[in-house]
Specification:
215 residues
Amino acid sequence: APQRKMSLFLGCASLLASGALQRPISTVAPTGASQIRAPAPVALASDATTSRRALLSSIAALGAISAAPPAWAGYVTSLGIETTKPENAEKDDELLGSKAVQDGLSAIKKYRSAAASLSSQFEADNNMNLIPVIRKEFDFSKLRDSLNTITTVFDDQTQLTTDRSTRGILYDLTELENASRLKKGETERTPKKVANVQKWFVKLDKDFADLLAYY
């Protein structure tokens, strides 16, 4: 009996090594029965190096999807990155005092004030047309440039944390615009749509506050 078990074990190991066990076994549905198509099998890498590269590529692709944080959460996340607190952030004081960075900071503060002002207007009129105002007050390319400029003062580790907020701000504005959209013929927002717009105003202000806490 032990020899038989060992023989079976060696046989299975040989099949596994040859790749025979990796090939799917095709089945034929009985005549008259509906056939169910199984999902195509995922080819396994032939060696450890290829497997590692494929895994790292998949992880990188997953991280890139967020980088415009996942729509289901409304947050931008980075797996495996240690958060640097504002009091522990390392920054270049000389660069921080430069005109470019100071102008960028002033612009970001104005953007935050504009968002707060627009939020107040929306509270007074839940049916106002927000999209033209959002596009007028927030030029995405200029906002992105200001965000990129002010974060150059930090060390690489801190930038991994601040990048979450900068990407989050841009994402929040995109979702705010989407939530503000009215269908053709609509003149009023339902309570659910109003709440969704308010949610993105709150998220946007929080991301601005989180970023400015580092300065």
